[in-house]
């Protein structure tokens, strides 16, 4: 507020306090939920609060975190990407095929494989975005098509078989636990999240992603091409699917055409639990990381508590629905503060 | 006044950051038409929402029809006999008029099957009461705004409402439509319906109202008999000071060379080609009825909709405009008619809305400089006197006038050579309106070209050097300032519609 304008009627919530409340409601809520769930399992489930188990959780969330990071971009623009699971499968077989090529040195094979994974994923993502914007088709449908196409392509490339025999140095890196507490693949996931956070928060591109998700027509009439940012978001989602495929190879050491089934839903769940709105324009990638943690902590904790595999999905499903309900409620609260 | 239908006693409502209403006491007599005035943000909307059952008051009490009135939902409000016709109409576009009218109480036959015959015949009766001669089986989407409004009023009647609240019903209506609406209001009044009427158009309230209540900054300024009051009196009550001349046409500004010229612009094969130009330092008015092709022409010019043919020249040089980004690059700006849907990023903060037109000014190598952004936004917010708690406030929570100022700010931030304004003061209160007018004069003095589309003829006549008139997609005339005449412009606007 400037001196020249008349003051609003008396304001019981100061800007500073409103900002803090906003932070509490929007960001700290999920984090608090994670802490409470973790404390709950630490107290009730045997072996939960052990370093070994913590390491296991870090390892297990890596793939989903990377996928969900890209998914965050797409959902922020108001889209959805159902294809990331099978794009990941396609990338694992492409990457593994290159990596087991004996004409290449291990270093060259690994580098080439990484590039091929990222390129394959990015191309799939680009196609998703381009087709849905060019012909104005809901991304739900386009990426559903891509889900099938990429799954088929993965079978074609791999001749419908699992690819094994990755270079030993690659396998070793996948098993590496840096300093005894930081699994290499978790580090990859954290780096992807950090990169996404930086882009969304500090760059013009990130601002445009939020703006497009808020009102793409207003963005267009402000002299921009919103489709460019939508296509870019899908390309990023494809790219992270490629990176997630490398993480998959690091962790499981096989390229498989049937990898990644249902991964897209886990990624979407992480994004939504993390507080990103399905209608676009609102959310944060740090929330996505927390969302991925919540999902895995629940899954591991329930298992350790002896909840059967049949009941586990029921609980996790409930949590997802709860998260969306809370999200709607949170919006109402935030609207009052802003 | 012994028969009070609605009374408010010390009613207050507080939102975090804003006191929306404070200690409002008011009583409304049965059968009167009561005008409520106030600038945007004065508390009118909050008052309506309290009556509609959308909000509950924090303090004070409301009594309706002799009993305490505490609706928990809009449904409760309707049950009690209070019906609101909101500014944004709430009809279902793909259902028929009849279905919309009786949606909450469809006549039924056995097995819950809708009785179409009863439905349509009842609808005919209701439509007759509001003077709307349309087949009740017509889908609502096929109606014009004025007709939709009448459907809303008919709907209110179908519930035997005792109190009807009309929120800016004339904002999008043309003069003859307004006249018809007023005659319907008078008829309702004769039937004993109490009406609360909210409007920004001060001249019209004298035609229908008996008493007026003015709100300012959430407080009640006064409730008076309209008889004996004048428009300047009302203005003074609303803004707390005098406004000498609303428009203050500045004749020291002399238009220069042609800034933008449009030749033979065609939207599609069915619409006629149009040509016009605007000079540097000129305010060109665009008059015409709603739906006469004014908005469409501006959108095509700006590249927002595809064009079939036509040459656009800026400063004498032809330019290719295929999308809004081309128009913006060539220095054009468009303030759209629908500011919420097309102008603003409602959930984002004021600063982000302002800088969206040119983020390169507040970034380096693709990295945002938040401090520079805040400085630029604060600068414009101060210059345009945008009332916001801070530049971090979401635009959604600003009043209409302040939202409009944010749209202007975003184009000023970009830097514009020609500004196209489509209904810049619709839903904007008189104080903010004045400030927008002054800003336009300032821009004209800086030799910007300004195209102003408006349904408010006095506004155009007060502001413009020249007015072009649209009628049925055609430009049917151009009137220079010296020959401004309300009747002449209006008859031009109707020209293409009255012909056989």
Automatic annotation (TrEMBL), chain A:
Query: What is an example of a GO molecular function annotated in this UniProt entry?
Result: transmembrane transporter activity
A Pfam family reported for this protein in Swiss-Prot or TrEMBL: BPD_transp_2
Where is the protein localized? Cell membrane
- Species per Swiss-Prot/TrEMBL record: Mesorhizobium atlanticum
Predominant location category: membrane
Q: Which domain of life is it from?
A: Bacteria
- Keywords attached to this entry: Cell membrane, Membrane, Transmembrane, Transmembrane helix
> Its topology with respect to the membrane?
Multi-pass membrane protein
TM region positions:
28-49, 55-75, 82-100, 106-127, 139-157, 177-200, 228-248, 254-273, 285-305, 311-329
Q: Which GO terms describe its cellular component?
A: plasma membrane
Q: What is this protein called?
A: ABC transporter permease
Automatic annotation (TrEMBL), chain B:
Gene Ontology CC terms: plasma membrane
Instruction: State the membrane topology.
Output: Peripheral membrane protein
**UniProt main location, coarse:** membrane
> Could you tell me one molecular function GO term of this UniProt entry?
ATP binding
Domain named ABC transporter is located at: 6-242, 253-497
Q: Which UniProt keywords apply?
A: ATP-binding, Cell membrane, Membrane, Nucleotide-binding, Repeat, Sugar transport, Translocase, Transport
Region forming the signal peptide: none
Domain of life, per UniProt, equals Bacteria
Q: Where in the cell is it found?
A: Cell membrane
Assigned protein family: Belongs to the ABC transporter superfamily.
* Protein name as annotated: D-xylose ABC transporter ATP-binding protein
Its source organism is: Mesorhizobium atlanticum
Identify the taxonomic lineage of the organism of origin.
Bacteria, Pseudomonadati, Pseudomonadota, Alphaproteobacteria, Hyphomicrobiales
């Amino acid at each position: 507020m400037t001196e020249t304008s008349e003051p609003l009627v008396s304001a019981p919530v100061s800007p500073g306090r409103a900002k803090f409340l906003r932070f509490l409601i929007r960001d700290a809520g999920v984090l608090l939920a994670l802490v409470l769930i973790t404390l709950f399992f630490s107290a009730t489930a045997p072996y939960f609060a052990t370093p070994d188990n913590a390491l296991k959780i870090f390892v297990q969330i890596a793939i989903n975190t990377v996928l969900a990071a890209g998914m965050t971009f797409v959902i922020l623009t108001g889209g959805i990407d159902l294809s990331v699971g099978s794009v990941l499968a396609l990338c694992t077989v492409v990457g593994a095929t290159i990596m087991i090529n004996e004409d290449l040195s291990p270093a060259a094979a690994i580098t080439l494989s990484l590039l091929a994974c990222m390129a394959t994923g990015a191309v799939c993502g680009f196609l998703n975005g381009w087709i849905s914007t060019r012909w104005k088709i809901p991304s739900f449908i386009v990426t559903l098509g891509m889900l099938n196409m990429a799954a088929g392509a993965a079978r074609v490339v791999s001749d419908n078989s699992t690819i094994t025999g990755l270079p030993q140095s690659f396998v070793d890196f996948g098993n590496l636990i840096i300093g005894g507490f930081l699994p290499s693949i978790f580090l990859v996931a954290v780096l992807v999240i950090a990169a996404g956070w930086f882009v969304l928060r500090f760059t013009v591109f990130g601002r445009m992603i939020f703006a497009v998700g808020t009102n793409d027509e207003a963005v267009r009439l402000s002299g921009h091409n919103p489709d460019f940012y939508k296509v870019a978001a899908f390309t990023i989602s494809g790219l992270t699917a490629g990176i997630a495929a490398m993480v998959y190879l690091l962790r499981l050491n096989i390229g498989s055409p049937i990898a990644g089934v249902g991964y897209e839903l886990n990624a979407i769940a992480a994004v939504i639990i993390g507080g990103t709105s399905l209608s676009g324009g609102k959310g944060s990638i740090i929330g996505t990381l927390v969302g991925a943690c919540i999902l895995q902590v629940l899954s591991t904790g329930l298992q350790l508590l002896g909840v059967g595999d049949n009941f586990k999905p029921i609980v996790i499903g409930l949590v997802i629905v709860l998260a969306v309900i809370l999200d709607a409620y949170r919006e109402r609260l935030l609207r009052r503060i802003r | 006044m012994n028969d009070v239908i609605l009374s408010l006693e010390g009613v207050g409502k507080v939102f975090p950051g804003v006191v929306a209403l404070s200690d409002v006491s008011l009583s409304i007599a049965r059968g009167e038409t009561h005008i409520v005035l106030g600038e945007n943000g004065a508390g009118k909307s909050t008052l309506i929402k309290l009556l509609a059952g959308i909000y509950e008051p924090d303090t004070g009490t409301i009594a309706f029809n002799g009993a305490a009135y505490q609706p928990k939902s809009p449904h409760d409000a309707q049950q009690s006999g209070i019906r609101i016709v909101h500014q944004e109409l709430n009809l279902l576009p793909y259902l028929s008029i009849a279905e919309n009218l009786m949606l909450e109480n469809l006549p039924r036959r056995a097995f819950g099957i809708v009785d179409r015959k009863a439905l349509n015949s009842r609808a005919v009766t209701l439509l007759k009461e509001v003077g709307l001669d349309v087949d009740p089986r017509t889908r609502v989407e096929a109606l014009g705004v004025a007709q939709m409004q009448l459907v809303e009023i008919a709907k209110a009647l179908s519930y035997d409402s005792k109190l009807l609240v009309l929120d800016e019903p004339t904002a999008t209506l043309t003069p003859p439509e307004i006249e018809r609406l007023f005659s319907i209001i008078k008829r309702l009044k004769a039937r004993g319906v109490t009406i609360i009427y909210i409007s920004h158009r001060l001249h019209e309230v004298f035609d229908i109202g008996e008493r007026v209540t003015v709100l300012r900054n959430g407080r009640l300024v006064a409730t008076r008999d309209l008889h004996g009051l004048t428009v300047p009196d009302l203005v003074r009550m609303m803004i707390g000071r005098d406004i000498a001349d609303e428009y203050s046409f500045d004749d020291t500004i002399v238009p220069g060379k042609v800034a933008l010229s449009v030749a033979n612009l065609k939207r599609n094969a069915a619409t006629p080609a149009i040509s016009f130009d605007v000079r540097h330092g000129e305010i060109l008015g665009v008059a015409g009825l709603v739906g006469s092709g004014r908005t469409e022409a501006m959108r095509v010019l700006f590249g927002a909709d595809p064009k079939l043919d036509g040459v656009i020249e800026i400063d004498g040089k032809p330019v290719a405009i295929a999308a809004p980004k081309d128009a913006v690059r060539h220095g054009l700006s468009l303030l759209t008619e629908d500011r919420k849907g097309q102008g603003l990023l409602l959930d984002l903060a004021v600063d982000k809305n302002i800088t969206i037109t040119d983020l390169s000014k507040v970034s380096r190598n693709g990295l945002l400089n938040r401090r520079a952004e805040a400085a630029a936004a604060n600068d414009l917010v101060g210059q345009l006197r945008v009332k916001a708690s801070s530049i971090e406030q979401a635009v959604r929570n600003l009043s209409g006038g302040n939202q409009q100022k944010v749209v202007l700010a975003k184009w000023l931030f970009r830097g514009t050579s020609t500004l196209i304004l489509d209904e810049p003061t619709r839903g904007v209160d008189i104080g903010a309106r004045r400030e927008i007018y002054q800003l336009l004069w300032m821009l004209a003095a800086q030799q910007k070209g300004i195209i102003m589309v408006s349904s408010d003829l006095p506004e155009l006549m007060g502001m413009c050097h020249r007015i072009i008139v649209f009628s049925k997609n055609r430009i049917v005339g151009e009137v220079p300032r010296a020959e401004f005449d309300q009747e002449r412009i209006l008859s031009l606007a109707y020209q293409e519609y009255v012909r056989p």
